[in-house]
Design a protein that fits this description.
This protein is α+β, with helices and mostly antiparallel strands and 431 residues long. It has helices spanning 19-27, 37-51, 54-68, 99-103, 115-165, 178-195, 238-249, and strands at residues 88-90, 95-97, 112-114, 271-273, 279-282, 303-305, 314-320, 326-333, 353-359, 362-367, 370-374, 382-388, 393-398, 403-409, 416-422, 426-430. The two termini are 72 Å apart.
Length: 431
């Protein structure tokens, strides 16, 4: 479909004294671009002598054709150096030039093409590209109709199965227990999705023309990407994990056990603990008091740990962070270092702690000194945590919208404790 570019080899010797006169004749000659430029010039001079005014009318017709194509405006561009019309294209420097530039100017010896020929070739290339884009658009529409619709039905089936299995043994309640429901939902979502496959729409249900899309070079079939990978058989599917978490959080244990509190022995001197052992408040330097020495207490970092170790089952809890501008919430091993100002006792900066951190408006997940920036649309007033020991999954979420902020799967080798830190205002465990 696309015309090949027609190039003209410029192989002239040094310009003669009559070059100016020759160039004037070129401007009025009928140039055949299939010949070397000096052959064109010779033919043009010969035709000029034989045909007289005939060549003038020919040039006028060529200009009219270019104007009708919409490429040229009423006023042609001129070469700055030679003040003549830019009617050639230099393929070496990729710019418009005049005939003077091609023969005696800076583009002497370059590969040049008549501008009209270049315009036609580029136009044909654009037509090819547009046709390929249109064909790919038809393929995408067919892909959406055949594939994504079936996936949506699979997800609806998986969600319905998860809700049914999450109801638990108590028939008087429409919500399942937090621990039993979570365990069954994890397997139910995967099993239900794998068994409830929905076949794609038959070809006859597609719009007319979808089955007649022809093959073309450079256009491939649409396929699943990482963002669209909704395979129900995948045990690490982000979508299924979110469905499972949502089902668990609908249960009565969404706020965790009422026994979850802060361990008074671990509270840093930089913090004060409320009478119900649920609220940590950052204490300004002037009113700080030195608590008695305890090997379990953090002495430099403003940290505190939970009182209940977790090494089995499923646990969820919510921390009210309010308007605090600097806090950390997460989990850690009980063997975490408590003394000193090194990273060994700093939450998120060692291999024994996993926390969501908020500081100066930025949210991030921190572990082993590495930060993963988090995109948080709306500043949450509460941070939820969901720990499933069976699948070794830790999830941070926003309770009001159930939006997952971050999720990690890690082989936890020892019991975990709630771990928090705050250096602005206070945070509270909710029940």
């Amino acid at each position: 479909m696309t015309e090949e570019f027609i190039t003209c080899d410029l192989t002239c010797s040094s310009p003669s004294a009559d070059s100016e006169e020759t160039l004037k004749l070129v401007k009025t000659a009928d140039m055949e671009c299939e010949q070397p430029i000096f052959s064109v010039l010779s033919d043009g001079v010969k035709q000029q002598k034989e045909a007289g005014d005939t060549s003038t009318s020919t040039t006028t017709n060529n200009t009219a054709t270019d104007a009708e194509s919409g490429i040229f405006s009423g006023e042609c561009e001129l070469c700055v150096e030679h003040e003549t019309e830019l009617d050639w294209f230099c393929g070496t420097e990729l710019k418009l030039i005049c005939s003077h530039c091609a023969i005696v100017g800076p583009c002497h010896g370059h590969t040049v093409t008549p501008l009209a020929t270049r315009v036609t070739a580029v136009r044909n290339q654009l037509v090819d590209v547009c046709e390929k884009i249109q064909l790919q658009a038809l393929r995408i529409e067919r892909f959406i109709d055949q594939t994504l619709t079936a996936k949506e039905q699979k997800l609806q089936t998986a969600a319905s199965t998860a809700r049914e299995q999450g109801s638990g043994s108590d028939q008087r309640s429409t919500r399942g227990t937090g621990r039993g429901g979570a365990a069954s939902l994890g397997g139910g979502a995967e099993g239900g999705g794998a068994g409830g496959a929905v076949s794609p729409h038959p070809e006859s249900s597609l719009e007319p023309g979808f089955g007649e899309v022809e093959e073309t070079e450079g256009v491939g079939e649409p396929c699943d990407t990482e963002q669209l990978n909704l395979n129900p058989a995948c045990s690490d599917s982000k979508l299924l994990r979110s469905l499972w978490a949502t089902a668990v959080l609908l249960g009565p244990n969404a706020y965790g056990s009422s026994n979850l509190k802060f361990d008074e022995r671990t509270v840093s001197p930089l913090l004060s603990l409320s009478d119900d052992f649920c609220t940590l408040t950052f204490v300004h330097k002037k009113i700080r008091q030195s608590p008695p020495y305890d090997p379990a207490r953090f002495d430099c970092w403003p940290n505190a740990l939970g009182s209940v170790p977790m090494s089995s089952g499923t646990h969820s809890w919510v921390v009210d962070v309010g308007q605090s501008a600097a806090f950390k919430v997460g989990v850690c091993y009980s063997s975490l270092e408590r003394k000193g100002s090194g990273n060994e006792a700093r939450l998120g900066y060692n291999s024994q702690s996993w926390v969501l951190s908020h500081y100066d408006g930025d949210y991030s997940f921190c572990h082993a000194g590495k930060k993963v920036p988090l995109q948080v649309v709306k500043r949450p007033q509460r941070i939820g945590l969901l720990l499933d020991w069976l699948s070794q999954t830790l999830m941070f979420y926003e309770p009001d919208s159930s939006a997952v902020l971050y999720s990690i799967t890690h082989h936890f080798s020892a019991p975990l404790l709630l771990a928090c830190a705050v250096t602005d205002r206070s945070i509270t465990i909710l029940h």
